[in-house]
Amino acid sequence: MSKKAARILGSICLILFSTMVTADVINVSPSAFQAEDGSADFAIASGGWGDYVYRVTGASERYAVAPVDIPHSVLIRYMRVHYMDNDPSNGLFAGITRVNKYTGTHNVIYSFFSAGASTSITFGTDFNASPSPSYALTNLEACSYQCTIATDAIGSSMLKVYGFTIVYDPWP
Known about the structure:
Strand order of the largest sheet: 2-5-10-7-8
CATH topology: Jelly Rolls
CATH class: Mainly Beta
Number of domains: 1
Order of helices and strands: HEEEEEEEEEEE
Number of strands: 11
Helix content: 10-25%
Radius of gyration: 20 Å
Oligomer: single chain
Low-confidence stretches: 5-19
Mean pLDDT: 85
Strand content: over 45%
Structural class: mainly beta
Shape: globular
Number of helices: 1
């Protein structure tokens, strides 16, 4: 192979590799979550697998939220929630919510539901933006973003959320 052909082939490989590896990641830790109504209905604890958030005994609030510090004008590819759900009768809702700053409208753009089937840490993933793919393109001028969890499960032995992973692509 000539030097010129090797350079061209190398350039093509570099271009292909640079366009394939563009995703960035945001991790939302359990310590970022607080009860939506500001109460102490969710708590942070540490266990053998790390920190987690759970709903405390006697809680009335079902929702906990965490702000997402995501760049403007990027495309959210998918979300993944890391959790353990030992409650067979109460599941977990986890999602990324887009909140319009002017109207207060909440749109869940990615979501996941569990059904109380794990005895160790597992994860759930949503790759499909709703109500349409355009909602996955961030617009910080008009919207804020948050991770939301909701459950009726009470106590740290029943349901634990270990955090969210959000994967996004820079918008060209």
